[in-house]
């Protein structure tokens, strides 16, 4: 059966609320700069009340990646849970308008659609407080196995490992994809997420459920419990049948497969405005490259280009036509 979709993502469906903030505001709020923390509805309301003027837009890590994949002209689909409320309808409208298929049944009752409160400091760093809300209602019944089998690459976000039912959905999708002979990619999402689930994430790799792993430097250091980058990369390369992709901000990206290690530079940007979504859009470009049959260097260059586009403005989704941008830079015909 030929694949209906190039990339299918499973993740948290979230509406982002962004605001500018100074470092001392983060300290006063008890927030860890550059990290993501899960909060309950009351804490989310407290943080929101202290925020300045806001910008609201649809987000969610895997959802951002799938929007980027579609932006490169590929067939993309997304599985994620929203409630039948204003935020949920906004999320569904936005992701479909971006060209991503989204047919997950909405929740009629229960918690509201998830929101992520993002404070962006002058250096472009984002500090996130996430109320998962309806995301926690995502379960294995929401995973369409026929859709999974009909997708070349399944992309999963590590944040899904928090809610128990979502974890079951994650595993169901991964097993169905591997059984169909397709590829499964996992984004580690956040170093604090890795701290919580290090053994389980490594188990997914070593049990053969995941064969592409995305991480940034801090996530990789957490995964292998070392502060030395070379040691962490060596451990990553020792994992059998794994393609490791490690982003390093302005230092570019390192692609690791066994003893092969390829370094690709970052694309320069005039000003870093907001790093929200940088890793998500890098993954979009890399996966788009893989789906198109590009070599690792080419796939990483597409990822670096997409990441550079998204950090040059506020928000986690691209504002430029990624396909045209790639053509303008000679990365795609």
Automatic annotation (TrEMBL):
- Organism of origin is Methylosinus sporium
Lineage of the species this protein comes from: Bacteria, Pseudomonadati, Pseudomonadota, Alphaproteobacteria, Hyphomicrobiales
Q: Which family does it belong to?
A: Belongs to the carbohydrate kinase PfkB family.
This protein is called Adenosine kinase
Keyword Transferase in the entry? The reply is yes
Domain of life (superkingdom): Bacteria
- A GO molecular function for this record? kinase activity
- Give every Carbohydrate kinase PfkB domain span: 55-317
Q: Does the keyword Transferase apply?
A: yes
């Amino acid at each position: 059966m030929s694949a209906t979709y190039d990339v299918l993502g499973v993740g948290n469906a979230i509406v982002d609320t962004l605001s500018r903030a100074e470092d001392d505001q983060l300290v006063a709020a008890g927030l860890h700069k550059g990290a993501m923390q899960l909060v309950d509805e009351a804490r989310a309301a407290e943080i929101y009340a202290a925020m300045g003027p806001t910008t609201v837009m649809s987000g969610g890590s895997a959802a951002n990646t799938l929007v980027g994949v579609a932006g490169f002209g590929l067939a993309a689909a997304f599985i994620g849970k929203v409630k039948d409320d204003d935020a949920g309808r906004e999320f569904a409208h936005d992701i479909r308008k971006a060209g991503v298929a989204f047919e997950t049944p909405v929740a009629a009752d229960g918690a509201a659609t998830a929101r992520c409160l993002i404070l962006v400091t002058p250096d472009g760093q984002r500090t996130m407080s996430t109320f998962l809300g309806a995301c926690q209602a995502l379960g294995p019944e929401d995973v369409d196995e026929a859709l999974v089998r009909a997708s070349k690459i399944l992309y999963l976000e590590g944040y899904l490992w928090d809610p128990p039912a979502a974890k079951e959905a994650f595993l169901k999708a991964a097993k169905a994809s591997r059984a169909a002979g397709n590829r499964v990619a996992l984004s580690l999402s956040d170093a604090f997420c890795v701290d919580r689930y290090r053994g389980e994430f490594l188990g997914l790799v070593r049990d053969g459920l995941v064969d592409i792993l995305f991480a940034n430097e801090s996530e990789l250091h957490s995964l292998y419990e070392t502060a030395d980058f070379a040691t962490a990369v060596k451990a990553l390369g020792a994992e059998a049948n794994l393609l490791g992709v490690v982003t390093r901000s302005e230092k570019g990206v390192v692609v690791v497969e066994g003893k092969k290690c390829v370094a690709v530079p970052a694309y320069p940007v005039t000003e870093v405005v907001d790093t929200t979504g940088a890793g998500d859009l890098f993954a979009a470009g890399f996966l788009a490259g893989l789906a198109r049959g590009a070599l690792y260097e080419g796939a990483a260059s597409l990822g670096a280009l997409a990441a550079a586009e998204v950090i040059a403005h506020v928000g986690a989704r691209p504002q430029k036509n990624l396909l045209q941008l790639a053509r303008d830079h000679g990365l795609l015909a």
